[in-house]
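Narrative of activities, Objective 1.

The group set out to show that a structural description can be obtained from nothing but a protein's sequence at a throughput compatible with the screening campaign. Below is one input-output pair from the validation batch, recorded exactly as produced.
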Amino acid sequence: MSAVWLEQRERGSLAVMKGGVRLLLSVGHTFGRLLLYPTCAYFLASSRQARAASREYLGRVLGRPARLLDIARHYLTFAKTLHDRVYFLAGRTGEFAIEQHGLDVLERTLAKGKGCLLLGAHLGSFEVLRVMGTLERRLPVNVLLYPDNASNADAVASDLCPELKARVIPLGRPDTLLRVHECLERGEIVGILGDRALKSDKTVRCDFLGAPATFPQGPLLLASIVKAPVVLFFGLYHGARRYSIHFEPFTDELSISRKDRAAELQPWIARYAQRVEHYCRLAPYNWFNFYDFWRA
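Output recorded for this entry:
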């Protein structure tokens, strides 16, 4: 799989982003929402490849050809979660209604003292858990991220919520695995998203929304190396200021031999893809992979 998403340049300078964040926090959430509409209209008109990717995905998940209005709603949903991210990071979570489902699954897993891997996707908002866990519930949520993608956005996030910066573990560094081990040994959470791959990543093809799609082996291979339990996580946006957080047990420990890793990981990754598909159908406009996801 060509990692097209990594080749897409981050749009907007750091200064513009910081100015935009200050503006949003000063004018308030409701007025800030109004500013999203002309912004989305601009991106809808100017982003041909992302628009085509949105059309293909929506056609699959909705079971009918996607209309321009559907694509506009898809863009706007993405913009709204980014907008809400500003308020989450600024500590204003009390302005939102957030339902929690399966939190006992996570708490039981952590009670064993081994920590866990939290496996999610680019579906809805991971930020809702990071902020609530770090600032409100005091759940130690560390996140594995690609270091050079959306660096301006990460810089803005660090300014808004410095507590989260120390919880980021860059992927692909010599000490990445060591830092993951240390977090798990302390009984902490390590979050990773399992639906995008780097060019160098080993991948498998799994059915997703009716056609084969490419998923990376890395997240579940990591789980097998560190011998950590895996819990699935999805934070869905439901309109207005409403979110729901969903946790599901996935595996207590994943054992994969070195002989044929791809074949042994295939059914696990297929199971993950099925759960992502389930939540895509629950909240179809929450899927935020704006590139040709099904290209081999």
